[in-house]
Amino acid sequence: MFARVDFVRRWRLWFAISGILLAAGILAIALGRLEFGIDFQGGVQFTATDASRQLDEGELRDRLPSFVEREAVIQRLGDSGYEVRTPVLDRQQTNRVQRSMQEALGAEVSVTSVSPSFGEQVRDQALQAVAAALLIIVFFITIRYEFAFALAAMAALVHDILMTVGFYAIVGREVNLVTVVAVLTVLGYSLYDTVIIFDRIRENSPSVGYNRRRFDEVINTSIRQVIRRSIYTSVSTLIPVTALLIFGRSTLADFAFALLVGIAAGTYSSIFIASPVLSLYKAWRAGKLGSATRAA
């Protein structure tokens, strides 16, 4: 099935497919469709469970106080749950919204409040966690293999992060701390797939000097040896993740969605992004060294 696929020399096609999807995600972000939860931007979250009265979103919005009626974001949680998110409120306003929801739904309503400064701090820490993970990965792969492999792995991981965030924006899902956990999980999964291919490339590479045609063929051969394993592993992982997305509640569904997109993107990038980037960088470096040698 994959014997005739040239994974390296058809890099323009693979990059174009990713480029189209990434451009769609970036456009969605530019249009303001990336929604940050209260974990990052601050605000108040009201959660009602086991409501005795079932209202649609419009009916519930009409029952909220006028000062949050327009700005409130309302979401159903299963069959009898509701979640309402508002900007930062003072204690009196918070109590009014809570009472309004209790009277409208006939349910207990819990309140979670996050200040804007704390949300900003959480956002900064989340970015630092992702950046630290990427730097540690680069260091590990550089020591384990060489810098060319680390650069290729980094390209694949950045691709996976942008793809996951982009699809969040496209479908309008909320980015929260669960999303950060999912992204870090995706980084580990994607790296696992990439390292398997890199290990096979190193095993198949001759010990003598670099030759581009020979190295590209080694990459193609290595991918063909492990691609079925990568696809079968990813499909096996995506089955329970998809079930979690379909049947899980709000927080679990958000986590599952990030995993679904990230694992699919990670499987693709390990084969069609990391390996061509490795080939292109090695060829560029060899050409640069050759030019320097001739000049000397």
UniProtKB/TrEMBL annotation:
Keyword list, A-Z: Cell membrane, Membrane, Protein transport, Translocation, Transmembrane, Transmembrane helix, Transport
InterPro entries (UniProt xref): SecD/SecF_arch_bac (IPR022813), SecD/SecF_bac (IPR022645), SecD_SecF_C (IPR048634), SecD_SecF_C_bact (IPR055344), SecF_bac (IPR005665)
Quaternary structure (record): Forms a complex with SecD. Part of the essential Sec protein translocation apparatus which comprises SecA, SecYEG and auxiliary proteins SecDF. Other proteins may also be involved.
Described purpose of this protein according to its UniProt entry: Part of the Sec protein translocase complex. Interacts with the SecYEG preprotein conducting channel. SecDF uses the proton motive force (PMF) to complete protein translocation after the ATP-dependent function of SecA.
Lineage: Bacteria, Bacillati, Actinomycetota, Rubrobacteria, Rubrobacterales
Keyword Transmembrane: yes
Principal place of residence: membrane
GO terms for biological process, alphabetical: intracellular protein transmembrane transport; protein targeting; protein transport by the Sec complex
Designated name of the protein: Protein-export membrane protein SecF
Transmembrane domains' residue ranges: 12-31, 126-143, 150-171, 177-198, 231-249, 255-281
Membrane topology: Multi-pass membrane protein
UniProt organism field: Rubrobacter xylanophilus
Record-level Gene Ontology MF annotations: protein-transporting ATPase activity
Family: Belongs to the SecD/SecF family. SecF subfamily.
Subcellular localization(s) per the UniProt record: Cell membrane
SUPFAM superfamilies: Multidrug efflux transporter AcrB transmembrane domain
